[in-house]
Amino acid sequence: MLRRQVERPRFSWADRAVLSALARHLPPVFRRHRLVTPGTLLTWHRRLVRWKWRQPPTGPGRPPLAEETVALIQRLARENPTWGYVRIQGELRRLGHRAAAATIRRVLRRLGLPPAPQRASEQTWRSFLRSQAHTLLACDFMHVETVFLKRLYVFFVMEIATRRVHVLGVTARPTGTWVTQLARNLLMDLEDRAGRFRFLIRDRDSKFTAAFDAVFAGNGTAVIPTPPQSPRSNAFAERWIRTVRTECTDRLLITGERHLRTVLNQYAEHYNAGRAHRSIGLRAPDDDPNVIPLPAATVRRHQVLGGLLNEYLTTSPRLPHHPQETPSSAS
Question: Is 212 exposed, middle or buried (0-12, 13-18, 19+ CB in 10 A)?
Answer without folding.
Answer: buried
